[in-house]
UniProtKB/TrEMBL annotation:
It comes from the Bacteria. InterPro entries: ACP (IPR003231), ACP-like_sf (IPR036736), PP-bd_ACP (IPR009081). PROSITE patterns: CARRIER (PS50075). Keywords: Phosphopantetheine, Phosphoprotein. This is Acyl carrier protein. Pfam families: PP-binding. PANTHER family: ACYL CARRIER PROTEIN (PTHR20863), CARRIER DOMAIN-CONTAINING PROTEIN (PTHR20863:SF76). Residues 2-80 form the Carrier domain. SUPFAM superfamilies: ACP-like.
Length: 83
């Protein structure tokens, strides 16, 4: 199982791949508003890519509650830990 740092690195890679930004840098505080090209359509693509990568799905309410990248990473970590 991946640790939180590894998940953050992979999420950054996935978001960069979806947005076509290979050298993207994200922090826990980053939001979609902070990243050029991260709109509602690419947001869905990012969620789907992460779900595919980690083998689970987010409910609509879970996804809607995520306010920044740090919360997204924490949610992935919790789901991959079986919590």
């Amino acid at each position: 199982m991946a640790n939180r740092t590894e998940i953050m690195q992979r999420v950054t890679e996935i978001v960069g791949e979806v947005l076509g930004i290979p050298d993207l840098k994200l922090t826990d505080e980053s939001t979609a508003r902070d990243v050029q090209g991260w709109d509602s359509l690419t947001h869905v693509q990012i969620i789907i890519a992460v779900e595919s990568e980690y083998g689970f799905t987010f409910s609509f309410s879970e996804a809607a509650q995520l306010e920044n990248v740090g919360q997204f990473v924490d949610a992935i970590y919790q789901k991959t830990q079986g919590a």
